[in-house]
Amino acid sequence: MANDYKNPFKELDKKLLEVPPEMRQKVMNDVAIAKLILEMAILVTSNYASIFSGMFKTNTRK
């Protein structure tokens, strides 16, 4: 049972293989989509603090 265990840290010094171009393009597209979703979420949610402070602010008349 103990002989079946492979230490992943021993494989770090092995030579890295080149990634196929189609897989590289798919990963880059996935990263671009994730970045777009993140930026859109930031755009939508960035003003919540100012909206809430404006809603709960009371105007005092002098």
Low-confidence stretches: none
Order of helices and strands: HH
Largest sheet: none
Number of strands: 0
- What is the subunit arrangement here? single chain
Task: Supply Rg.
Answer: 25 Å
Our estimate of the beta-strand percent is under 5%
DSSP helix count? 2
Class computed from helices, strands and strand pairing:
mainly alpha
Helix fraction by DSSP (H/I, runs of at least 4): 40-55%
Sum up the overall morphology in one term.
Answer: elongated
Spatial gap, N to C terminus: 81 Å
Mean pLDDT: 83
Features:
55% helix; 0% strand; mainly alpha; 2 helices
Describe the structure.
This protein has 62 residues and is mainly α. It contains 2 helices and no strands. The protein has a domain at 19-54.
What would a concise description of this structure say?
This protein is about 55% helix and about 0% strand.
Write the layout of secondary structure elements.
Elements: H1 21-45, H2 48-56
